[in-house]
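> forwarded from #structure-qc
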C-alpha cells in the first residue's frame, strides 16, 4: 500500500513540475529565457533547441539577447524565432540577436490568462486520473487479498488528501501566473 501512495505522490509531483514548466512558455510582458524553450533551430540538418546553440540572457526587463556560439547560424536562429508563436521581431547585428518584448494588449492578456486557466484544468484532470489509477490499484490489491478492506479504505483516503493538496497547488500556481499576465 505504501508503494502505491509513494508512486502516486511521485506522479503528482511530476505533473505539477511539468505544469510549472509549461506555464513558463507563456509570454508575459516581461522577458524570460523560458520563452524560448520550445524554439528549435536547424543546426547541421537537425532541429536543435535554441538554448543548445546560443546563450540567452536578459539584460533588462523587456530585452532578450541571444548570442549564438556559431555565428554562421544567426540567420537560422532569426528564422526560427520568426516562425515561432512568440510574435517577436529579432534585431540582428551580425553577432547578437536582440529582442524587445513589447507590452501585451489587454485582449492578448485575457487570451493568455484563459490559456493558463485551460492548462491548469488539464493538469487537474491529470491529477484526478492519477488518483483513479491509484484507487484501482488498491482495489486490485484488496481483491487479491494483498491488503485488507480497511487498508484499502485508508489508502484511498490518503490518496484523496494527496489529490486535494496537489489540485490546490496547481490552482495557486495558475492564479499567480494569471496575476502576472494581467499586470501592466
Amino acid at each position: 500500500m505504501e508503494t502505491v501512495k509513494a508512486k502516486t505522490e511521485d506522479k503528482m509531483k511530476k505533473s505539477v513540475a511539468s505544469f510549472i514548466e509549461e506555464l513558463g512558455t507563456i509570454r508575459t510582458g516581461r522577458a524570460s529565457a523560458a520563452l524560448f524553450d520550445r524554439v528549435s533551430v536547424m543546426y547541421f540538418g537537425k532541429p536543435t533547441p535554441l538554448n543548445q546553440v546560443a546563450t540567452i540572457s536578459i539584460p533588462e526587463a523587456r530585452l532578450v539577447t541571444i548570442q549564438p556560439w556559431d555565428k554562421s547560424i544567426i540567420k537560422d536562429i532569426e528564422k526560427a524565432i520568426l516562425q515561432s508563436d512568440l510574435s517577436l521581431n529579432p534585431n540582428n547585428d551580425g553577432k547578437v540577436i536582440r529582442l524587445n518584448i513589447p507590452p501585451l494588449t489587454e485582449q492578448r492578456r485575457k487570451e493568455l490568462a484563459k490559456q493558463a486557466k485551460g492548462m491548469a484544468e488539464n493538469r487537474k484532470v491529470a491529477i484526478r486520473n492519477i488518483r483513479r489509477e491509484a484507487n484501482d490499484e488498491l482495489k486490485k490489491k484488496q481483491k487479491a487479498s494483498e491488503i485488507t478492506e480497511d487498508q484499502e479504505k485508508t489508502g484511498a483516503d490518503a490518496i484523496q488528501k494527496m489529490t486535494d493538496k496537489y489540485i490546490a497547488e496547481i490552482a495557486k500556481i495558475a492564479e499567480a501566473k494569471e496575476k502576472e499576465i494581467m499586470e501592466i
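QC bot note: Strands lie at 40-43, 46-49, 54-60, 63-68, 91-92, 97-100. The longest strand covers residues 54-60.
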